[in-house]
Design goal:
By secondary structure, the chain is α+β, with helices and mostly antiparallel strands. It has four helices and five strands, in the order αββαβαββα. The chain binds tetrahydrodeoxyuridine.
Length: 137
């Protein structure tokens, strides 16, 4: 699985987005250490706060399927049908990643033309964690 292929999966997942309030269609593709891929899209709600981001949808699908080792995630989004703006993971999604991934977990943020590559520690330095917690690395 190349980085570009993972991004293609994220773009395909964005098509499933339910986002009538923001008009932002976001997709994520999460690559597990075992090679499996879990995709997710953002799912919004009229009450706003139940909205879930594409990244968390992908993580929760994977975790609930018994996955526990993650290598990389690709994120792609379109605002009003245009994919020219990077959709950097929000703070809540970064914290969820920190629960299940090491500091070297790779995050690809793609637009139509290009992509940027980060580690989790780039995007979430000085991470809050509980030493010796259950899901921490
Ligand atoms: N969103 C994501 O799904 N992922 C991100 O990385 C940033 C934001 C969603 C949440 C909401 O449905 C919409 O984009 C606008 O914030």
């Amino acid at each position: 699985m190349t980085e570009k292929d993972l991004i293609k999966n994220a773009k395909a997942a964005a098509k499933m987005s339910y986002s009538p309030y923001s008009n932002c269609r976001v997709g994520a593709a999460l690559l597990c250490d075992n090679g499996r891929i879990y995709t997710g899209c953002n799912i919004e709600n009229a009450s706003f706060s139940p909205t879930v981001c594409a990244e968390r949808t992908a993580f929760f699908k994977a975790i609930s399927d018994g996955e526990g080792e993650f290598k990389m995630i690709a994120v792609y989004g379109e605002k009003d049908g245009k994919g020219d703006t990077p959709f950097y993971p929000c703070g809540v999604c970064r914290q969820v990643m920190a629960e299940f991934c090491g500091s070297d977990f790779t995050i690809l943020v793609a637009t139509d033309d290009d992509y940027e590559k980060f580690t989790l520690s780039d995007l979430l330095p000085h991470t809050f964690s509980i030493e010796k917690g259950v899901a921490l690395k």
